[in-house]
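Closing statement on the beta-D-glucopyranose sub-project.
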Amino acid sequence: MNKKFAVMAATAALSVAALGTMAQAEESKGLIGVAMPTQDLQRWNQDGENMKAQLEEKGYEVDLQFAGNDPATQASQIENMISNGDQLLVVASIDGDSLGTVLAQAKEAGIPVIAYDRLIMNTDAVSYYATFDNYLVGKTQGQYIVDALDLDNQDGPFNLEMVTGDPGDNNVNFFFGGAMEVLQPYIDAGKLVVPSGQMTKDEVATANWATDAAQSRFENILSSNYADGTNLDAVLASNDSTALGVVNALAANYTGEYPIITGQDCDIANVPHIVDGTQAMSVFKDTRTLAAKVVEMVDAIMTGSEAPVNDTETYDNGTGIIPSYLCEPVAVTVENYKEILIDSGYYTEDQIQ
Ligand code: BGC
């Protein structure tokens, strides 16, 4: 090869390489950090995977992290995302109150933050919030109990117990608040009574939403209040992991008439209980829908257009209202689980046997 030709060839090779890099740069529309709370619970794995797949499909790179339900780990993961140059953060918090410091760094670096499913409190770094209508989740559970016990026509009294989730999760206020808005009038009228007397948010809480914590609290409730043959008529369980704790406690410690038990998420582990009647219902929140909405929000923010919101009144995080998109939850029972969970492709028949 003569010298001139060699230089031309090298230049051509360089331009091909440069073109390749440019094409790569064009391929990635940006790096998005997705911080999820834990892999212990089925839904967050699905949320994380759905977000990653849908963002990648739109041309984004994704930095997906799970924090083992440890707020300090989540804060340091977010710190790393900021220093790694992530351009937008999607965060499902563990403790809604513990991210203020790290998110202040995000704000300073001009990185927008979307609160995913759980509102992040007391920081002005949150641009948007996307979730299911959490208040409606609670109301749906409460109304299910009212209808199943026919409280508008029966005098009762019926015995009720309540199991909610982690007090650091802002959603608990909405789940519990929504359910109590429906149930409290019947408690006031004496149609519902709570034999354990445990009715405040702190008394009915379950640390980390853990099944075994719910189970051991419920075992105590049963041995102190129902061991003499008293019937338990209904349990307000805020989600499926806590409902499972109640189901386990009842299986080993209760022989009375089986109560109505509520739940949320339609976890794989709970669907057989819905089918055999040991859990009356669950509130389904299709994680595909939430992920799709958040991906729309991300894309809008990244391309400078308007992010979709449908609620600008409900979610004040202590620094003002956070514009939100609320997806709709659906009550699932033995009557409709096939249509909603299987026909929609959310689960296969095999997964839930
Ligand atoms: C979510 C629920 C979930 C719970 C426990 C809540 O913030 O909204 O879907 O069951 O956390 O992870």
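Residues 3-27 form the longest helix (25 residues). With this model delivered, the sub-project is considered complete and its resources will be redirected to Aim 3.
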